[in-house]
Amino acid sequence: MQEYTPQDSLVYLNRSVSSQLEVVADLIYEGEEIDTLPENLQNAVSLLDSLRNEIRNEAEHHGAARAAHYSNGVPTSTRFDDAPTTDPDGETYLPEVHTDVHPSGNVRVFSIPTNKEV
């Protein structure tokens, strides 16, 4: 396990946790206008946005918002290429997945359960 600094932790929180908070907010309103949601869900999305903004503001304040590598040299993100995929329209492409890397060097991939047909 790589050693890392408190600032590295802030970089990770800014990149990973902020992104996850945004995904959770998007899952709650699924493309609907926020003001059409019930009040409790509007409040939940508002709170998630506030949390994300607080993390981002702190990261920017400490110069940790744009780091490409942690203090120990570990990159803050990585990219995986998947096998070529053909979509329903017949177009073939190579999907990529970008994911954040923890300052320890561990790659943590978070997935969202889906019931959509492939």
3D architecture notes:
This protein is an alpha+beta fold. It has one domain (6-100). Helix content is 40%, strand content 12%. It has a two-stranded antiparallel sheet. Strands 2-3 form a two-stranded antiparallel ribbon. The model is unreliable at 114-118 (pLDDT under 50). Residues 60-90 are annotated as: Disordered.
Compile the SSE list and pairings:
Layout: H1 6-29, H2 39-61, E1 77-81, E2 85-86, E3 92-93, E4 96-100
Antiparallel strand pairs: 1-4, 2-3
* Rg, Å, rounded: 17 Å
Q: How can the largest sheet be summarized?
A: 2 strands, antiparallel
Assembly context of the chains? single chain
Sequence of strands across the biggest β-sheet: 1-4
The shape is: flat
Total helices: the number is 2
Which residues sit in consecutive blocks of at least 5 with pLDDT less than 50?
A: 114-118
Kindly estimate the percentage of residues that lie in beta strands according to DSSP.
5-15%
User: What is the average of the pLDDT values?
Assistant: 83
Helical amount: 25-40%
Roughly how many Å apart are the termini?
37 Å
Count all strands and give the number: 4
Region (Disordered): 60-90
Can you tag this structure with a few keywords?
118 residues; alpha+beta; two-stranded antiparallel ribbon; 40% helix; flat; disordered C terminus
